Amino acid sequence: MVRAWHIDESKLDENKLELSENERELVNLEDLKEHTGVLYWKLNADTYNEDGTLDEIRKCRGYTYADEIEVSSKTLPNFDVMIKKFASEHLHTDEEIRFILAGKGYFDVRDANSDDWIRIEVVGGDLIILPAGIYHRLVLDKDRYIKAKRNDVKGSFLDRMENGSANMWGMGFSTELRIPFPFSPKISP
Ligand SMILES: [Fe+2]
């Protein structure tokens, strides 16, 4: 099961991505959905092609695009530049959909009310959908490797400026062809 917890930016450093159990203030999936709009499902990274679970979600949400990205120093051109970009706070004008095939990373998302960070740890089999308009970033773990399927290409990438606006989740970004949030496919979350 995916793990998510509140993080205090002032106490973070690159060597301390993994907080101890005592230091974590865990967030359950229901609260995560309520405070950020993030949706999550656990699929089987080895059998998702045959069991049809990813296809079911794609069909229900109207996704027509798919590609794969392998974030590693060996396969991704301009690796250092790109991981810096992923780790900078930004939003998109459309959903960000990631199905993790291998490796590990952390999606940090802003709580829509408090603007605090919530860190979501993702590994193989995790499918995560960040809603349009939510500020977020992707931080790699110490192994600096993650491989994922993407289903989104339409939305613009907007960096958060200093004194930037709050999350714009739910503020009228295009959702045509999408099943309205919340959405529950017939597979276990
Ligand atoms: Fe993003």
Automatic annotation (TrEMBL):
Pfam families: ARD. InterPro entries: ARD, ARD_euk, RmlC-like_jellyroll, RmlC_Cupin_sf. GO terms for cellular component: cytoplasm; nucleus. Fe(2+) binds at residues 90, 92, 96, 136. Keywords: Amino-acid biosynthesis, Cytoplasm, Dioxygenase, Iron, Metal-binding, Methionine biosynthesis, Nickel, Nucleus, Oxidoreductase. Ni(2+) binds at residues 90, 92, 96, 136. It comes from the Eukaryota. It is found in: Cytoplasm; Nucleus. One of its GO terms (molecular function) is iron ion binding. Binds either 1 Fe or Ni cation per monomer. Iron-binding promotes an acireductone dioxygenase reaction producing 2-keto-4-methylthiobutyrate, while nickel-binding promotes an acireductone dioxygenase reaction producing 3-(methylsulfanyl)propanoate. Pathway: Amino-acid biosynthesis; L-methionine biosynthesis via salvage pathway; L-methionine from S-methyl-5-thio-alpha-D-ribose 1-phosphate: step 5/6. CDD domains: cupin_ARD. GO terms for biological process: L-methionine salvage from methylthioadenosine. Catalyzes 2 different reactions between oxygen and the acireductone 1,2-dihydroxy-3-keto-5-methylthiopentene (DHK-MTPene) depending upon the metal bound in the active site. Fe-containing acireductone dioxygenase (Fe-ARD) produces formate and 2-keto-4-methylthiobutyrate (KMTB), the alpha-ketoacid precursor of methionine in the methionine recycle pathway. Ni-containing acireductone dioxygenase (Ni-ARD) produces methylthiopropionate, carbon monoxide and formate, and does not lie on the methionine recycle pathway. Belongs to the acireductone dioxygenase (ARD) family. This is Acireductone dioxygenase.
